[in-house]
Amino acid sequence: MLPNFLIIGSQKAGTTSLYRILKEHPQIFMADKKEINFFFKEDEYARGAEAYAAHFADSANQLARGEASPGYICHPEAPKRIHALLPDVKLILTVRDPIQRAISQYWDNRRHLNESHTFAEAVDLYLSDEYHPDEIGYFSRGVYMRYIRKYLEYFPRENLLILPFEEMISAPKGFYKRIFTFLDVDVDFISEDFDEAFNPTEIWKNPFYQILIRKPRYQKEIPSKLRRLFYWGKKMRFSAPPIGEAKRKKLEDFYRPWNDDLREFLGLDLDGWS
């Protein structure tokens, strides 16, 4: 068995919540492992189709079979690879205000002690609309139309469902109903978890961790394998601090043509996007 739909992205745009909700639906099979990354990671792709199919071995009784690997949207080889194995697959993409998406990815790395630069420094270092699999991609992951056009070289428009992440938050029932309709499964399925955030941001309270997250330059002094030693004690919810106005303006200017292109393509206002 192979999947007949994929959640291809975007990273930090609700794919964990989407994966969990679809896993609850009685007519949908989701691979037990989120982020199989078969079409994204070279070592996974090299294992071949049989290894990939093994993730769906128990899916015969479900109408829809899928997996969620948000890296698929921006990997330059993913559309071609997916089409070669799954030419009729349905594709689901969530898009989020790219500035907020970048901030979320940055702070996800920062709270895991994998980012030694401030956000302002990251803008100066990494601002680019060219994505490379071996680079961090804080900002290049948000130029959605570049990747959408690449997928449309291989798949018809009707095979691609694109939904704003913000709708998942503001109108979850309608958001999921559109997905169930797209997948031809029971659209009346309701989950108590529609409003649940499955991937909340938390950080540790202990003072050693707090020093490292507040002063990221110190992370360079500690080997990456040892940084987990600071993951202990009580946790607290975390919200990213505001970014400076100068850097926000720079990002707004950077994303404006890409966002305008996406608005026209989708025929949506994308309310609230910068």
Q: Strand portion, in percent?
A: 5-15%
- The span between the termini is 42 Å
What is the CATH architecture term of the largest domain?
A: 3-Layer(aba) Sandwich
The name of the CATH superfamily of the largest domain reads P-loop containing nucleotide triphosphate hydrolases
Work out the helix count.
11
| Approximate shape | globular
What is the rounded Rg? 19 Å
Report the biggest beta sheet as strand number plus sense, adding barrel if it closes.
Answer: 5 strands, parallel
Structural class: alpha/beta
Poorly predicted residue ranges: none
Number of domains: 2
Task: Note the topology.
Elements (H helix, E strand, L loop, with lengths): L4 E5 L5 H10 L3 E3 L11 H4 L3 H5 L10 E5 L9 H8 L4 E6 L2 H14 L7 H8 L17 H9 L7 E5 H6 L1 H11 L19 E3 L2 H8 L20 E3 L7 H22 L8
Explain how this protein is built.
The protein has two domains: 5-201 and 239-266, P-loop containing nucleotide triphosphate hydrolases (Rossmann fold, 3-Layer(aba) Sandwich), CATH 3.40.50; 202-237, no CATH class. It has eleven helices and seven strands. The protein has helices at residues 15-24, 42-45, 49-53, 78-85, 98-111, 119-126, 144-152, 165-170, 172-182, 207-214, 245-266, and strands at 5-9, 28-30, 64-68, 90-95, 160-164, 202-204, 235-237. The strands form two sheets. A five-stranded parallel beta sheet has the order 2-3-1-4-5. A two-stranded antiparallel ribbon has the order 6-7. The protein is globular. The model has no long low-confidence stretch (mean pLDDT 94).
